[in-house]
Amino acid sequence: MNQDTLPYENALRIVLDASTRLSSEDCPTAACLSRVLATPIISTVDLPPFDNSAMDGFALRGDSIVHAGTELPIEGEQAAGDGIARARAGAWEIMTGARVPDGLDRVIPIEQTERVSSDSVRLLADVTPGQNVRVAGSDVAHGEKVLEAGTVLQPQHLMLLAALGVAKVPVGVRPRVAVICTGRELVDNPAQTLAPGQIRNSNGPFLAARLPLAGAEVVHVETVGDDAAAFEAALQRALNAGAKVIVTSGAVSMGHYDFVPQALERLGAQTLFHKVAIRPGKPLLFARLPGDVLLFGLPGNPIAVAVGLRFFVEPALRVMLGLPPETPYRVPLSKPYSKKPRLRFHLKSHLHIDAQGRLAVEVLEGQESYRIRPLSDANAWAVVPADVDALPAGALVDVHGVGHFEFPHPDFPLPGRAA
Ligand SMILES: Nc1nc2c(c(=O)[nH]1)N[C@H]1C(S)=C(S)[C@@H](COP(=O)(O)OP(=O)(O)OC[C@H]3O[C@@H](n4cnc5c(N)ncnc54)[C@H](O)[C@@H]3O)O[C@H]1N2
Ligand code: MOO
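A: This is the predicted complex of the input protein with molybdate ion.
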């Protein structure tokens, strides 16, 4: 290995150490989908808020079992939304979700009753205490912790917060990120005919789409030619837009037009590393600009961009969002796999259920870093460490989701339960 090519683990350490957790802000609950909860949520109410019926039927009371054949006078009717009612000794006709009248403690479904007259009912089954009553606080008790800090808020969490009447929640501020693609061969406008030697910019749309899914706010996107002055001006526009992280694509390798390292030097940036022992993405560069802005110089090949984003930028975003490092799944390979030693490989892969119903991962054909078609077939990244060269079918490998918030994504144990 080249002296100045860092092992992935060392490079990642440098990235994590340079990243700092951002502050939190209040977000209206209805608008907090996919945001990261900054503090735990403790319920200040009971859920359900009152004892209510699980069935359409009759509410009644008794010291123990009330037996089939019992006849009771009907005292009133209680529908969902009705307020406090006080029962005497009889039965109340009740609807699902209605507050159980005070003094009653059980509900018999309508189909287990027989109307004897307009104001009395006969039970056709025994009714036990508490039967078909949804007790106040049985779902969530007042004072109970319902969500952990670090929860990535999903619709089911919004359902819970809405039911609890939580109007706003503290969430981590989203890291502000700018994207700058470099290359005079790039064409952004899909309506423009390509001249010989030109290609369409696919890294820009990929980064602009993936970063918000990773918890970032994209504040600036720009494409520049192979021109150091234009690149420096673009960096300035990114900084003016408030970027705290800048992701660039291209111009970090050995070619005549690979000007990013020199441009950064001129801007007074501190290059923290350049070149990592990985494939793809080896010429990756990481620098800190004045003002503590982090710059990830991703090599231009599209899969090097995808790997740089997934395995360097996303871990930094996790620190900024207050999330712990990810734990990959360990999944058996469906076929043997061999690679060059000394480089850590990040492989476009397909996680699936095999014929025996077990989880398995297949390394896809077409791993070259210019090949984007297999990335669109992939639903996971498999990672094979630097010191490994050949793995038989069935060997366990680390598997990561396509994004850090996506399957197989890390999750927290439920409050009060072990991991
Ligand atoms: N002599 C050497 N040449 C190369 C080396 C090396 O070590 N020695 N490393 C190779 C590796 S690995 C990579 S990755 C690339 C990285 O090069 P750059 O970061 O300088 O990127 P470019 O040369 O600008 O572009 C590489 C490739 O990707 C295409 N590209 C660039 N931007 C986009 C975009 N926005 N959308 C789609 N495609 C893009 C570009 O046209 C090139 O084909 O260097 C190798 N060379
Ligand atoms: O890292 Mo460059 O990764 O292939 O193609």
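The radius of gyration is 30 Å. The first helix runs from residue 8 to 18.
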